[in-house]
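Customer ticket, subject: "Can you confirm the structure for Helicase HerA-like C-terminal domain-containing protein?"

Message body: Hello, I'm evaluating your service for our small team and ran a test protein. I'd like someone to confirm that this is what the system normally returns, since I don't have a reference to compare against.
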Amino acid sequence: MADKGKFISELQAKYTSKGEFITLGKGMFNGEVVQEVDVNIPLKTINRHGLIAGATGTGKTKTLQVFAEQLSHKGIPSLVLDVKGDFSGIAEAGTDNAIIKDRYSKTGLNYQAQSFPVELMTISGEKGVKLRATVTEFGPLLLSKILDLNDTQSSIMSIVFKYSDDKGLPLIDLEDLKKLLQYLTDDDGGKADLKANYGAISPASLGAILRSIVSLEQQGATKFFGEPSFDVHDLLQTRDGKGVVNILRVQNIQSQPQLFSTFMLSLFAEIYMTFPEEGDSGKPKFVLFIDEAHLIFNEASKTLLAQIENMVKLIRSKGVGIYFITQVPGDVPENVLSQLGMKIQHALRGFTANDRKEINKAVENYPITEYYDAGQLIQNLGIGEAFITALDEKGIPTPLVQTYLISPESRMDILSDAEVSELTGKSALVQKYEQSVNKDSAYEMLTTRMEQAVQAAAPEVKAKISKTAVPKEQPSVFQEVIGSRAGQNFMSTLAREGAKFVLGMLTGKRR
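Agent reply: Thanks for trying us out. I re-ran your input and got the following:
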């Protein structure tokens, strides 16, 4: 039988921090809360990433809420990818009740109901800050990965971007990209120039690229690509000393995996490219929480998985921590899991043989402890209890500790529609990014060029007709023009653009 005094002295030593820290709860020994043992996490190591895992209903989301609140108290902003849509209540103060009073009486800590500064965000047109990016900002390499193009098609995409740069054709949205691809394969467009100076595009490759773009559009990407593009530095706001909790509502992720992959790659790339190196700053600049991460890893492309693995390895030097919230540690790829310095493990249920395998795998990832039978206790942790191991200020893993977690100080429920409207209505960021800007870009410029080419061909046709006697039975000038190749192209373009105009009226998009 382990000694309680030894437990207290060892855990106090390992979970005491000389610098700034956050407190997640109190240690437990033999099923009882030990008030002498604070489970503190040094801010210095929070950018070493982490995992919050546990079966459905064991309290993962509330732990995430506590974590985000504690970071906010320290002036550290965060972004929470809210898949279930149940996190928005952090914007309102919680309410005291018997359960919370009992929990805090056991911990010996004080409960103070309060709200936290929040920005609601969206990539699919809901109420909130509209997150957008331009095609140019993605670049040919990243866009090719999103579209899942092969090497040949990726090289074509690089040529297309090079052509757009050389000719001053801004690629803002997907319509610009599609228009440029069509222009570069049109005999009356830029086909000859492209072939002479850059290389030809085969019809088969063009078709494959366009199909990939259409597939991305069908998942709602037309709302994501455009201007004004989102500045990731707007994620770093603080108000009255508290870090802003940015909440991205992505409840439809399962039906839009490619769109979500697009956003994730854009976010990681933009943060890595624009945030300066932090070095040993003593606390993170920003923390990203990916809730229901198993949905992301199950639905995401191989490209996104590889990019996440790379970002987890590299992005901590920018002062950014990434935390995955999922059901079992096995949901996270091994290469990513090995990079996570902090683990918060709620209860797992061993109903099947596969469940028991996952339990054994989870226990193997924890430091060996003499104070708990981890394999048995992990199946019997109560709601609001979790195993925790982290990194101390020297980067050494702390002992595994059964933790009695504190409760959120904000509301443990969602905002009403009226509250969402009020919150977004007074947001300066919502106003900043609300209206899309449709500048003259490749689509408009190329459409004008093609129309001018057709109009320039008309006088030549008239001059040709005036030199010859026109019998009564011969076609009119109008018919001659319409029958010409340029005229046919013009009529095709007119019909196509007319259809787009009508569809634009129906879908609300104007050009």
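A couple of notes from the result: The radius of gyration is 29 Å. DSSP finds 19 helices and 14 strands in the chain. Feel free to reply with more questions.
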